Structures are given as structure tokens and as C-alpha cells.
């Protein structure tokens, strides 16, 4: 189904909420505009309530015959990732041009390591990895926190010692599995892509057999 958004006004545009610190340094022109509570917004034929990041209702703005809709609310409705780069005053919608490595903010478990004896796979040192190399049969998992800023997760995973027959990535808050797969030793370093638009938290899980392991390079796995 094609994504479609209708507003009962002439001309729809989008604006992004910015903090006062950002506004102070922006190239702004003062205007006289109106909050317009009479406008109804529909998505695929159904009415939607525009909300900010905290869940508060926000209204369209009417100015000079055009209607402006808050970009974060519209992105959430269309299930498109949105972020703001304050350094360049740039609104980022959908996939970003450059990925953000998981190593940047990874804060999980004793299996997170920078030990050179554990970070090498296939002759390459990945510098920082999640490597569960315990010996018993077990579940292995970690959390990721995209916070709705990214469109896609690109995850690299390798099985060591034994195949991983059950692997999945789950939207933790909605309890929905976004990707389920298997990872065989012969796959080498397998690249797994997951659509994560609008997702706040991710649960990455694998069932590992005895003497098996899971190797995830955090420098080459990334959000985009």
C-alpha cells in the first residue's frame, strides 16, 4: 500500500521542533502564524492525532495560505525515522548517508570486549566486539537503543564452534520480532538488515549450542 497523508488545507509542509539553543543560532525570520485546530489529518483514510515526542498533542500551523505540519509527528505517522543534526542544522529523514557504528553507544554485558585476543575473526581485528564464547548450551542476548532515530539496522554476526539455529531481532517495547534467521558456521560473517523505523529499543537474541559462540563486530555493525 502506498503511503499517503491528507490534510484538509491548501499546501502541506513540515517543520521540526528545535530547542531554544538551536533557535538562538539559527537564521530566522519572524512571522505571524496561527495554530489551526480545525485541520484534520488523515493517513491512508484514517484520522490521526499528531503528537510530539512526549505524547502531547500538537496542532498544524497556518501561515500565508499554507499549512505546516510538525516533521517528527508526520515521520512517526509514516513510520519514517527522523533525526536532527544540530551541527549542520539538518533534518535527517529515512536512512542516513553514513552509518553510526554500534560501538559508539554499546553498553551491554561481560561479552562486550576490546581484548585483542577475542576481537579477531577471519584474520581481521574488529577492535570492539560482542563475543559470547561460553561453553554450555545457552541463550545469548543484548539490547540496542536506536530511539527512533534510524531507519535500518545492519548487523554482522558469525557463529563459532556450532551453527546458530535460532536468531532474532525484536522490537522490545512492542514485543514484535522484526527479523528471524539462522547463522551457519559456513556463512562466515553474515550481514543481517532489519527495518527499524520508529523503534525505540531492540532485543537481539540467539540460542547457542554447547561449545558454540556468537561473534558480533560492533565497529562494522551499524544504524542507518
From TrEMBL:
<dbReference type="InterPro" id="IPR036582">
    <property type="entry name" value="Mao_N_sf"/>
</dbReference>
<keyword id="KW-0732">Signal</keyword>
<feature type="domain" description="Copper amine oxidase-like N-terminal">
    <location>
        <begin position="40"/>
        <end position="92"/>
    </location>
</feature>
<dbReference type="InterPro" id="IPR012854">
    <property type="entry name" value="Cu_amine_oxidase-like_N"/>
</dbReference>
<protein>
    <submittedName>
        <fullName>Copper amine oxidase N-terminal domain-containing protein</fullName>
    </submittedName>
</protein>
<dbReference type="Pfam" id="PF07833">
    <property type="entry name" value="Cu_amine_oxidN1"/>
</dbReference>
<feature type="signal peptide">
    <location>
        <begin position="1"/>
        <end position="24"/>
    </location>
</feature>
Amino acid at each position: 500500500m502506498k503511503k499517503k497523508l491528507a490534510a484538509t488545507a491548501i499546501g502541506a509542509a513540515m517543520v521540526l521542533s528545535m530547542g531554544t539553543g538551536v533557535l538562538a543560532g539559527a537564521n530566522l525570520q519572524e512571522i505571524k502564524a496561527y495554530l489551526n485546530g480545525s485541520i484534520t489529518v488523515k493517513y491512508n483514510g484514517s484520522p490521526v492525532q499528531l503528537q510530539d515526542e512526549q505524547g502531547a498533542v500538537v496542532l498544524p500551523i497556518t501561515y500565508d495560505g499554507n499549512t505546516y505540519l510538525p516533521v517528527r509527528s508526520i515521520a512517526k505517522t509514516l513510520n519514517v525515522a527522523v533525526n536532527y543534526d544540530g551541527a549542520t542544522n539538518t533534518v535527517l529523514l529515512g536512512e542516513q548517508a553514513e552509518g553510526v557504528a554500534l560501538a559508539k553507544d554499546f553498553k551491554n554485558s561481560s561479552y562486550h570486549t576490546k581484548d585483542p585476543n577475542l576481537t579477531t575473526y577471519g584474520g581481521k581485528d574488529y577492535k570492539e566486539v560482542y563475543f559470547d564464547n561460553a561453553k554450555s548450551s545457552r541463550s545469548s542476548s543484548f539490547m540496542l537503543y536506536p530511539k527512533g532515530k534510524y531507519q535500518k539496522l545492519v548487523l554482522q554476526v558469525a557463529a563459532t564452534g556450532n551453527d546458530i539455529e535460532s536468531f532474532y531481532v525484536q522490537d522490545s517495547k512492542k514485543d514484535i520480532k522484526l527479523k528471524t534467521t539462522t547463522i551457519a558456521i559456513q556463512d562466515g560473517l553474515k550481514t543481517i538488515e532489519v527495518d527499524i523505523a520508529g523503534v525505540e529499543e531492540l532485543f537481539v537474541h540467539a540460542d547457542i549450542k554447547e561449545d558454540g559462540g556468537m561473534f558480533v563486530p560492533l565497529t562494522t555493525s551499524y544504524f542507518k
